[in-house]
Amino acid sequence: xxxxxxxxxxxxxxxxxxxxxxxxxxxxxxxxxxxxxxxxxxxxxxxxxxxxxxxxxxxxxxxxxxxxxxxxxxxxxxxxxxxxxxxxxxxxxxxxxxxxxxxxxxxxxxxxxxxxxxxxxxxxxxxxxxxxxxxxxxxxxxxxxxxxxxxxxxxxxxxxxxxxxxxxxxxxxxxxxxxxxxxxxxxxxxxxxxxxx
Length: 197
Description:
Largest sheet: 3 strands, antiparallel
Helix content: 10-25%
Order of helices and strands: HHEHEHEEEEE
Strand content: 5-15%
Oligomer: single chain
Number of helices: 4
Low-confidence stretches: none
């Protein structure tokens, strides 16, 4: 039985046997004496329960990050069971975690469900993977041709541009970069558990 459950049971019993306050000239009745003895006994049991609890049991809310090669938390803390640990990584599979504020999506304080925003500063609690907007320099030396001394020029050395009417579209690609189906930093897969007691 979990420590909190044991202590909760003892507290309920204590509330049922609280002794009455006795003034200096009041008689100490048998029921009051018995209640006092019962309370002392229950308080002693509570202290003994706390003292006998294995110190290897983590507090409720304890976070356990499992790195490669580490034991699962219920093996690391053998007095706990698998059902007492919440696998946080299963709620958000494959997601990176980001600190609240700045361009992050608004923190979801009232629940675990999130949606992924496409922009910055959204309200869904998460964001889709994106690449920062940027441009690539590109020069096409065949798009135009230099023609010297064309009509309207003030001298033979004057150069005007004559543009071809043909229009060609070109794209660049990541020939020299590592590429995959997602944008990501170098990373290590871990598991995250929280102890529920």
